[in-house]
Amino acid sequence: xxxxxxxxxxxxxxxxxxxxxxxxxxxxxxxxxxxxxxxxxxxxxxxxxxxxxxxxxxxxxxxxxxxxxxxxxxxxxxxxxxxxxxxxxxxxxxxxxxxxxxxxxxxxxxxxxxxxxxxxxxxxxxxxxxxxxxxxxxxxxxxxxxxxxxxxxxxxxxxxxxxxxxxxxxxxxxxxxxxxxxxxxxxxxxxxxxxxxxxxxxxxxx
Length: 206
Prior knowledge:
- This protein has helices at residues 2-6, 26-35, 37-40, 57-69, 122-137, 152-161, 196-205, and strands at 11-13, 16-20, 74-80, 89-100, 106-113, 142-147, 164-175, 178-188.
- It is an alpha+beta fold.
- Strands 1-2-3-4-5-6-8-7 form an 8-stranded mixed beta sheet, sandwiched between helices.
- A hairpin with a 2-residue loop joins strand 7 (164-175) and strand 8 (178-188).
């Protein structure tokens, strides 16, 4: 029931669009990832199993689509309308995952952005869009983001948006070949009664 009720969905703010990831995005997605391999490598999830590998693109999309149908994930690509291109271009990826309904009503959010577009407000705007959708439309209560302590750009995103630092989780996720500490940040719906996107855009205007 949940999957059909919450997915697919497209979210927009100006030239920024979050839309479902698709199999036919493979060529463009792979080009962006390849161009950003050095930029993303230190924060890349890895498989801790001996000789383990990450899924290929088709396997990744199939898994994300299944989670979306089950109501446990919202797998978006971040796209942007760019002059000279007929269609919005992929500039990143954002996934709301580990959605828990019932008495928890919580989720976890992760993202990456093309280095060429970093520093232009894309990541905080995308996070705010997705968080508002989860709070207002889906009725979730809590959003969590886990970030490596060394990942300065991502730390600035949650700082700009007002996520609370809930402390260090030691050896929390397997990243770039090793178990890595993460800082956990969270926000509840009561903390942004007027919406996170409105608060973020208001800070930008001042």
